[in-house]
Design a protein that fits this description.
Chain lengths: ~325, ~300
């Protein structure tokens, strides 16, 4: 699983580098020799366009050939003008679904995904809220702790698990033993997401308001914080689900029959149907991430009107008791 | 945020609430479940690896850590470090170019959004499906591109190409390394001000002077940080490599090979030595990345 920093990306950020639009500068530039810094702007677009085009091919081709290989029953060396449109069908996919081992594997992976999402949220939301409220100085430290899983990659973590195994067979023999380790693997993504959500809301005011209206911590969490953190929570859940559905290293070493484990084994047994299954897995994960990026973008936009524009009083909202 | 806390605590004190010191002393208790969880499921497994790598029948020794660097293991480290560095290098160059293109090309308005969104997806792709996708593109027999090139008389596999070799792994890993690099450098490239370019022009500099004296020095921490992250990313990847090749020239595959059986304690200190070295290398990379990122952010918060 590749690590990624998807969350804090300023998608709608201004583009200060833009050579043609960089107008909003200070007065003296009106006289500045505009062309000196960038000769022949006409040709300067060629290189970026070439880079984007080549990249587009590189990123699309493997997906297209995977789709072709899965759904078209023609060997690659016979591809040509007259065979390219022949023998396409979804049959390999149905064949994969019909395999008696498929359903249990899918069920296990989905159960693990749900379990991991719940454990992640139960662990991280209270911890993040508590840190923001009571231990703001610890924030950097906790952020550092949450990237530790990058330093101890899945293959190293599973080595540790194998060592501990003889002492904890009662626990590790269960399929659900994977859940806490998946929580750990997804931690860098999930904590960032929830942390970003907490930064965007006025946590202290919300909590103080709720508490002074007589709500306990449980009610505050349920009726005030969770609704306000909705997008963060959803995106953390999607990220977690995507990690769990694709995780192979730990599951295969511990011989758990999850979906990726089945994918690997089934592809050896039934190549074409196996490839179709991989295609589907890829599409499902991609869909999760696309939904995620749509959601996070919405959050970024909805962040702006949070401070009422008509409000002329300084919006300090520190909740200072007077 | 800290200011907020301070006023709150002071206010609380004047209102006759318990002294602030007791409250601050007990606040850490809220973090106990989180830290206990991490201790149990991350720290202890990692430490037992070191413990097992260092333990011998009569006490502790560094022998296994040394042995993990000899013979075939040494070859594995060499190969892994080489191809990871290559993959990181390609990823840094390509990713930076793509990020630059995304920042510069404004004409189709949706292009930048498309690139960043796609990178968010592809950076996480890895794993089995990616490896299988590349087999259908560049595999020895099933690969469509391989067959097309054969038709043109260019036989990749006669020239020593293989998806499991350095070149092949670099190509495949670029699929998640390049997008990751775009996500890392795009903010840094956005941080380059148009006014710097103009200032450079006003002082008589050319485009070359601008990049040489302003642009690249500002981007350097991001590029170095990106290199470290991509290196670590390639070095630790397992699932993709496991499909593409079954040779144990790659450290992560070699570790899996040692873990293959239900290994008893102390039986395979060398295997755990490999894991220990992997964690050390990853920790060094990620710490340096952390430092580089801190430096890179200096120009972005202007």
């Amino acid at each position: 699983m590749a690590v990624a920093v998807t969350m804090d990306l300023p998608i709608d950020a201004p583009l200060p580098l833009d050579p043609e639009l960089g107008a909003t500068t200070t007065a003296p530039t009106a006289l500045a020799p505009q062309s000196v810094g960038r000769p022949n702007a006409k040709y300067s677009r060629i290189v970026p366009i070439a880079v984007v085009t080549i990249s587009a091919f590189f990123f699309l081709l493997p997906l297209l050939t995977l789709a072709r290989h899965s759904l078209q029953n023609v060997p690659a060396f016979l591809l040509g003008k007259d065979t390219i449109l022949k023998k396409w069908s979804l049959e390999p996919l149905w064949r994969a679904f019909d395999d008696p081992d498929f359903m249990p594997a899918l069920k296990l992976s989905l159960t693990l995904a749900v379990g991991t999402v719940f454990l992640t949220l139960a662990l991280l939301v209270p911890t993040a809220v508590w840190t923001h409220l009571r231990l703001p100085k610890m924030r950097t430290f906790i952020e550092f702790i949450t990237v530790l899983p990058y330093m101890i990659p899945a293959i190293a973590l599973v080595a540790g698990i194998v060592i501990v195994k003889p002492h904890a067979r009662w626990f590790l023999n269960s399929n659900f033993a994977l859940i806490p380790f998946y929580v750990v693997l997804a931690l860098p993504f999930t904590y960032r997401s929830i942390d970003a959500g907490l930064r965007a809301i006025d946590l202290r005011t919300l909590v103080d308001a709720s508490r002074s209206l007589g709500a306990g911590w449980g009610t505050t969490l349920r009726k005030v914080l969770i609704p306000n953190l909705r997008t963060s929570i959803i995106s953390a859940s999607f990220l977690t689900a995507a990690v769990v559905i694709g995780e192979y290293t730990i599951a295969s070493t511990l011989l758990k029959r999850t979906l990726p484990q089945f994918q690997r084994e089934y592809t050896q047994r039934e190549p074409q149907a196996g490839y179709a299954l991989n295609l589907l897995a890829l599409l499902v994960t991609t869909l999760l991430f696309v939904l995620l990026s749509v959601l996070t973008k919405k959050r970024d936009q909805s962040r702006k009107p949070y401070v009422p524009p008509a409000d002329t009083t300084p919006h300090t909202s520190t909740g200072t008791p007077t | 945020m800290t200011a907020v806390i301070n006023t709150e605590v002071e206010g609380g004190r004047t209102a006759g609430a318990p002294p602030s010191s007791t409250r601050r002393n007990w606040a850490w208790v809220g973090l106990v479940p989180f830290f206990a969880f991490l201790l149990l499921f991350l720290i202890i497994p990692a430490l037992t690896v070191f413990f097992n790598a260092l333990r011998t029948e009569d006490g502790f020794s560094l022998a296994a850590l040394g042995e993990a660097f000899t013979g075939q293991n040494r070859e594995a480290f060499k190969f892994s470090i080489m191809f990871s560095a290559g993959a990181a290098f390609v990823g840094v160059i390509w990713g930076t170019l793509l990020a630059y293109a995304a920042a510069v090309l404004i004409r189709p308005k949706w292009l930048r959004n498309l690139i960043t969104s796609f990178c968010g997806v592809a950076a996480n792709m890895g794993g089995l499906p990616l490896a299988f996708a590349f087999i259908t593109l560049l595999g020895a027999r099933a690969g469509v591109l391989t067959n097309i090139l054969n038709w043109f008389g260019l036989r990749l596999y006669d020239h020593g190409f293989d998806l499991g070799n350095t070149a092949g792994l670099i190509v495949v890993y670029s699929y998640f390394n390049v997008p990751l690099m775009v996500l890392i450098t795009l903010p840094a490239i956005d941080g380059l001000r148009q006014s710097w370019r103009e200032a450079c022009a006003n002082l008589g500099g050319t485009t070359w002077t601008y990049w040489r004296r302003v642009g690249l020095p500002v981007l350097t921490p991001s590029l170095l940080g990106g290199f470290l992250l991509l290196f670590a990313n390639s070095f630790a990847a397992y699932a993709t490599a496991a499909v593409l090749t079954d040779n144990s020239k790659i450290v992560s595959l070699r570790i899996a090979f040692f873990l293959g059986g239900d290994v008893a304690i102390g039986e395979d200190a060398v295997g755990f030595g490999l894991v220990a070295w992997m964690i050390i290398i990853m920790a060094v990379c990620m710490t340096l990345y952390w430092v580089a990122r801190r430096r890179a952010e200096r120009w972005q918060s202007l």
